[in-house]
Amino acid sequence: MSSGNRVQRALTVAGAVAAALVLWVLTGPVAGLDPSAETGGKTAEVGAGAVIAGSLIAGLAAWGLLALLERMVARPGRVWTVIAAVALALSMTGPLGSAADGTSMAILAGMHLIVAVILIPGLARTARDVPRENAVTPR
Question: Mean pLDDT, the chain, as a whole number?
Fold first, then answer.
């Protein structure tokens, strides 16, 4: 991977983390709508640390998967985008199923969406095709 791609991917991940955190700040500390989720029968506020950790883990996992696919398939960007869209759909079950209330559900779903809106096109744009002789092809 070129250093330019590495920088662009790092900036994309950082941008997704920053966007989620900005949404949390605007809806939590600024507007007073503290998002919360129910886990293990208890309600807990979703804090800045959880927002940063969750979006950072998602971004790094997405980057890692793209890097792996670039070594394995002929069109990693296309394959990665499909997997990312499925992962987004599955991730939405979190805020839709465990948010403590409707406001929290909207805020948490918004965080998932804003991270995806930055990560999916941002990382897909950096994907490089693998030469056909090095790609894994279905038989």
Answer: 93
Instruction: Give me the phi and psi of 125, to 5 degrees please.
Output: -60, -25
* Letter string b/e over residues 5-35, b meaning 16 or more CB atoms within 10 A of that residue's CB: beeebeebbebbbebbeebbeebbeeeeebb
Task: Answer yes or no: are the C-beta atoms of 34 and 28 closer than 8 Å.
Answer: yes
Q: Which residue has the tokens 């897909």?
A: 124
Give the chain's domain count.
Answer: 1
For residue 119, the tally of other CB atoms under 10 A from its CB is 27
For residue 76, being part of any structural domain is answered with no
Residues pairing with 39 in the sheet: 42
Q: How far apart are CA 113 and CA 119, in angstroms?
A: 10
What's the pTM value of the predicted model, to 2 decimals? 0.89
